[in-house]
Structure formats: structure tokens, C-alpha cells
Hints:
Bound molecules: oxa(dethia)-CoA
CATH architecture of the largest domain: 3-Layer(aba) Sandwich
Largest sheet: 5 strands, mixed
CATH topology of the largest domain: Peroxisomal Thiolase, Chain A, domain 1
Radius of gyration: 18 Å
Order of helices and strands: EEHHEHEHEHEHEEEEHEHHHEE
Oligomer: single chain
Strand order of the largest sheet: 1-7-6-4-5
Distance between the termini: 17 Å
Low-confidence stretches: none
Number of helices: 10
Amino acid sequence: MRRSRLVGCGAYLPDRVLSNDDLAGRIDTSDEWIRTRTGIGQRHVAADDELTSDLACAASRKALESAGVDAADLDLIVLATSTPDNTFPATATKLQARLGMTGGIAFDVQAVCAGFVCALSVADSMIRSGGADTALIVGAETYSRILDWDDRQTCVLFGDGSGAAVLRAEDGDGTSDDRGVLAVRMRSDGRHYQALYVDGGVSTTQTSGYLRMQGREVFRHAVANLAEIAGEALEAAGLTPADVDWLVPHQANRRIIDATGKKLGIPAEKTIVTVERHANTSSASIPLALAAGIDDGRIASGDLLVMEAIGGGLVWGAGVVRL
Ligand code: UT7
């Protein structure tokens, strides 16, 4: 059975760091409120001349290096972003040119914070159906550009960053012991469009707009849906939460991460948490957490990972991957 094996990953964070205290100096908030309600301690912010494509390129180069794959050998790039460089073309095509990949196809997917799981799903489907052999999947965001820095309910929550992974076609036995992407499950429910959205856009205001969120509503859906979809993905792979070595969740809020782990029965010691350092980097948060877990030696080759995320749409999903 043809599988997509995850053979490398990389991450990039901009140099500039904004602490909770830095924000408390500008708006009516406090380090204590932000830490208690979200687990966030700081966030990285892109330099004025740093674009989403720059972040994506830096993370992608590291992922290709760790995979030992030459960009010329890629035949697919799926870039998840909701903060593209331009309305079109896809930021992925700029990345394609900068990496030196001349064949294949590069395109963006827009599933907000669930973007990386969506990119994983699309690339895995294309690899398994024979449409690609070697894929780069990327999550890259510059949310600092769409934050209303006077709105304390949203601006304290997000950060900029990028993470990437390389997938390569490999033959497996078709069992749950195989290495690679074992199952992905995705859902959306557009009735909650207004729960988390940007109040501008090409067709509405001809401006890029600012992020608006009904935090409590998104929180409620996150806690209700994430464990369920992770359980579905595990079941589709013929596995249970007891088989999981590492939960690599979207990093929006420590309380959501803890509640999801608890519902699944996966202990905190088996969960990668980077929200304290990175805040919510939307589609970049899972590959950033994955790279952090691999770099510090916790996640090892052969480990079984569950990745899950929810975001604007609402869109949510989970992927089960054996490294
Ligand atoms: O990645 C996409 C998915 N997004 C998420 O998963 C986000 C989900 N939502 C959340 O994480 C949480 O709902 C928040 C962190 C956004 C908010 O936490 P909460 O515990 O739901 O707080 P709240 O919105 O109910 O606000 C509680 C209080 C309010 O004051 P009053 O009305 O009780 O007087 C807010 O005005 O906290 C106030 N507040 C703040 N205070 C200090 C809201 N933001 C701040 C702030 N600093 N930054």
C-alpha cells in the first residue's frame, strides 16, 4: 500500500519577541490574565519587511535539509496560510520559485488554524493516488498584520511563525504498524462563519481587515470537537489513544489543549505544548510544535503522533502519523 512518510520537518520564528508585559504597557491587560486564561507568555512578530513567504521559505529550507531532500525533487507544495503575501497568486508559487523547484505544482490551502491538517490531508491524498511522490507541506502566518492591536480580546492571543514537513511516497503493508500518514479526518461547519473571521477582504471591503473572534464560542466548539475528531482519525487507522506516543495539538490555548488531552485519555506528559513561547500561530502551530518536540529529542523516529486543530470556518481536523 502506498503511504506518505514524514521524512523531515523544520521551523522558523521571527527574531522580534513581544512579551505579555510589553503588551500590558500598551493596552489594558496583564501577564497574569494572559497566562491564566491562555498559557501564553510571549509571541514572535515578523519584521516590517518580512513576509509570509519569507517565513515559509526559512522553515521549508530547514525541513528539506532535515529530510535530505533537494527542492528540485519536490513535485508538490501545499502551503496553508490565511495571511498570504498577495490576494493571488498563491504564496506557494513564490515559495516554489525561491526554493528552486521548477516542476510539479504548488498551491495554497485556506483552512485558517486547521490549515496544516488540511495540507497534510491534501498532500497525503495526492501521494497515495499517485499524483505526487515528494511533497512539502507548510504552515506560514503573519497574523501581526491582521490584528487590531487595540482589541485586547484578540491581539494578545496570536503570533507569527512557520513550520514545514516533507512527505515522501513509500510502500507500506497497509497495517497500523506502517510508518507515514495513517489517517486524516476533516470537518467544517460554516454556520459558525462569524465566530472567528476577518472583517475585510477583496470582495467585501477591498481592505485586508482585522481578526474578530467570539472567543467563548470558539472555545466551546474546540473542546467539544477536537477529541472527537482525533478519536475518529485513530479509529480509522485501527488505533486507540493508548497507542499514541505524542499529541501534537494546535496551540491556541493551554486550557483547550489540556481538556482535549483529558477527553482522549492522553496525559500531559505525552503532549507537546509550545503555546507559552509561540502563542497561536494558526496554521504554523502544529509544525512548529512538531519541530520543537523533534529538536529537543522527545519525539523519536517510529513514534505515533496525533495532530489536531480547529479554526475559523469553523474547520477542524486530526491526523494520525507514525514517524
Ligand atoms: O486558533 C483558533 C481557535 N481559537 C481559539 O481556540 C480561541 C478560543 N477561545 C479562547 O481561548 C478564550 O475564549 C479566550 C482566551 C479568547 C478568552 O478567555 P475566556 O476565559 O473565554 O475569557 P472571556 O472572553 O470570557 O473574558 C473574561 C473577562 C472579560 O471581562 P468581564 O466581561 O468578565 O469583565 C473580558 O473583557 O476577561 C476580559 N478580557 C481581558 N482582560 C484582560 C478579555 N481579554 C482580556 C485581556 N486582558 N487580554
